Amino acid sequence: MFFGGASIAIIVFLAGMNYSGYCLAKNRYLTDEEKSKITFEYISRAFKAHYKYEYYFPYKNYEEFKQKNPDHSRVVSHLLTEGRIPPVDFLSRIGGMSGNTIIINYMLRYINVGGNEKTKRVQEEFYITNCGRVLSVVDL
After folding, report:
1. Which of the residues in the chain have pLDDT under 50?
2. Exposure b/e, 6-19, CB count within 10 A at least 16 = b
3. I need a surface site. Which of 2, 9, 94, 130 has the fewest CB within 10 A?
4. How far is residue 105 CA from its own chain's centroid?
5. 133-139: long-range contacts (C-beta < 8 A, 24 or more apart)?
6. pTM for this one?
């Protein structure tokens, strides 16, 4: 009986840690800054892989991205996503599959058809797991 109760206690403890955003694999919580940098890297790869912008000007690195976009990100609870992406269900949350939602604001830099350099303000929302895997709505 003791082992059954201890097993249940361990499962409840681990589920609670997952729900709180703890990364069991890294044995720590990720900082908001780490989540923001991981999401920046995800967006940079996505532009190269999916959109193949010939005229898109990527940021050199995360530091340049932060400098040019001072209000670049907010890590929020899934309940505060402003309705753009669906809320995460309870089982995904306790399983650690989606720790937070991150809202990224940035200036997209590109050359338009007329050859002029332009910028466009972009806001995107992503799920990010407790251990830093970025998921877009397309990935779900």
Report:
1. 52-54, 140
2. eeeeeeeeebebbe
3. 2
4. 12
5. 134/38, 134/39, 134/42, 134/102, 135/98, 136/46, 137/85, 137/86
6. 0.76
